[in-house]
Structure formats: C-alpha cells, structure tokens
Amino acid sequence: MVHAKTQRRKEFLSRSLKKTLLSFFILQSMCFISISQTPNQIINTVNQRFNKVQNYKADVLITCKIPSINVNTIKANVIYKKPDRFKIKSTGILILPKQTANFLFTSIADTTAFTAVKTGEEIIGGVKTSIINVIPNQDTSDLILGKFWIDAARGLVLKSQLTTKSQGTILIENIFGSMIQYALPDKMLFTIETQKFKLPKALTLDINRSAPTNTVDDGKGRITLLLSNYVVNKGVSDEEFK
Asked: Which among 33, 51, 110, 140 has the fewest CB atoms less than 10 Å away?
C-alpha cells in the first residue's frame, strides 16, 4: 500500500515537472518570437513614435565647421506639419543637406517603398541598436542607400548614413532629450563630404573663404543643429510655409 502511494506521488511529481517545463519552454518561445522582429517591424517602432506628431515648431542653432570656409553660427526656426511639410526660417544663408531632420522620417515612413535588410547590431552610447539597410524600390529617389542604427526598444534612430545621388554620403547622429517621446532630437550632427556637397551660390557674399590656420582638411564638413523650445501639436497654419 505504501509502495503504491509512493509510486503515485512520483508520477504526480513527474507530470507536474513536465507541465512546468512545458510552460517554461512556451514562455521562452513567446519571448523569442517577440524580440525577433523583422526589419520592417523595427523600422515601424520609429514610425509609430513619430506618428504622434501632427505638427511642431522649434528654435535651432546651426553651427558649421567646413574646411576652407568660415561661417557664423545662425539662429533659425523649424516648422513641420503632417504629413510632409517642413521649413527652416533664418535671416542668414543656411548650409544644410537636403536630408534635414524630417527626411529621416519621410524616407522610412512607407515600408512598401523600399527593401529593408538587417545587417547586424551595434552598441551606441551603451544602447543596443539594430542596423537596418534600406534600398528604395524605384530609381526616382535621390537616396541610393540608407543605413539606420535603430533602438527598437524605444523607437529611435540614433544614427544614419545616407548615400545620395546629389550630395554624396551623409552621416547623421542624433541625441535625444526633451522630446524623446516624439522621436524628435535635441541635437543633430551632420558629417558631409565637402567635395560632393553643393554649397549655396550666394555663400561668397556672406562668408570669408580664408580658413583658420589651425583647420585640418580631412575632406569632411560638420554641421551641428541644436534644437530647443519645441512646441508640439499646438497647431501650425499653412500660411507659415509661404
């Protein structure tokens, strides 16, 4: 009798252990599936965050460091209105790539317009990012290849490298702070190829082309945007874009 009870207890414990292990493996599988996102799903973490933005305004301080050119720091204002209206207002001559802040969002907004491939992972500032290469499906775009380092957990593009037909390769690094909930950066650093970058024709009227003696020409120009005083989703009129 005692032996029979012991045997039943062993069988019960065995079944319980099997159920526990099965539940554990199911849970592990579910976790694995949830983190194994496709490239488009990773891109959509950024789109979902930026989709919260209907419009915004911000002040921006633009600093340029380009070999052989002296340019004063410029104060400007940026305006955006969904889906793709974007404008920078300033009193001076702006030296900026066509691929400004909102280009990052417009270039990846329609996941059917490109082929996305995950090529690896990289730690940036202590944050794990997925590296996603984006190739436009049509040759009509100025973008040849986009490479995005995406923090999928927060839906942020920490860095991007854009290979374009008109301006060569542009590297963009983003730092987020006050408007991280909307994926809007507080700071953007553009690194451009000076030989391929097209400078404004009126540039010679406002700048001194003699470079400082301590300037090292590495063929790269660096443009820094500091954005502040964001006003998000408070309304922007169409008149402001005229």
From this structure: 140
Are both 110 and 128 inside the same structural domain?
yes
Which CATH number does the domain housing residue 165 bear?
A: 2.50.20
What integer pLDDT is reported at residue 15 of this predicted model?
A: 56
Band (pLDDT 50/70/90 cuts) for residue 69 is: confident
Largest CA distance in the chain: 105
Q: Are residues 176 and 147 in the same domain?
A: yes
Structural domain of 16: 1-36
Extract the tokens encoding 51. 């989709």
Distance CA 168, CA 193 (A): 6
pTM of the full predicted structure? 0.78
Instruction: Identify residue 84 by its one-letter amino acid code.
Output: D
Contacts with 110 (C-beta within 8 Å, 6 or more apart), sequence order:
none
Cβ 193 vs Cβ 169: under 8 Å: yes
